[in-house]
Amino acid sequence: MLFPVECNKHTIFFIQVAPPDFILFESKRKQADEQMPDHFLDLRFILFRHLSLESVHLVLA
Predict the structure, then answer these.
(1) How many CA atoms lie within 13 A of 46 on its CB side?
(2) How far are the Cα atoms of 2, 7, 27, 55 from residue 10, in angstroms, in the given order?
(3) Is 27 part of any domain?
(4) What is the Cα Rg of the chain in Å?
(5) How much is the pLDDT for 14?
(6) Is the confidence at residue 59, as pLDDT, over 70?
(7) Which of 5, 8, 27, 34 has its CA 20 to 30 A from that of 50?
(8) Cα(51)–Cα(30) distance, rounded to whole angstroms?
């Protein structure tokens, strides 16, 4: 499943929800879990700087 995230009716990024077997190896799943917070923090910085958003909320699930 692919969900667009929009700001002022403009898509700014997508969130993909994949089935559990999408990542076959547990080591790769752990690696992805460790990288996601950093990627979202980078995205938050980009959104603040380039789109002048007042706030960006981070939700990791």
Answers:
(1) 8
(2) 16, 5, 35, 16
(3) yes
(4) 14
(5) 79
(6) no
(7) 34
(8) 31
Structural domain count of the chain: 1
Q: Is the pLDDT of residue 60 over 70?
A: no
| CA distance to 8, 10, 25, 37, 48, per residue, from 61 (Å) | 25, 24, 19, 10, 22
To the nearest 10°, report the CA torsion of 54, 59, 36, 4. Answer: -70
Q: Please give the C-alpha separations between residue 35 and each of 8, 11, 22, 39, 42, in angstroms, as whole numbers.
A: 28, 23, 17, 6, 11
Structural domain contains residue 30:
yes
* Residue 17 located in a structural domain: no
Six token digits for residue 43: 């995205």
Task: Say if 47 falls within a structural domain.
Answer: yes
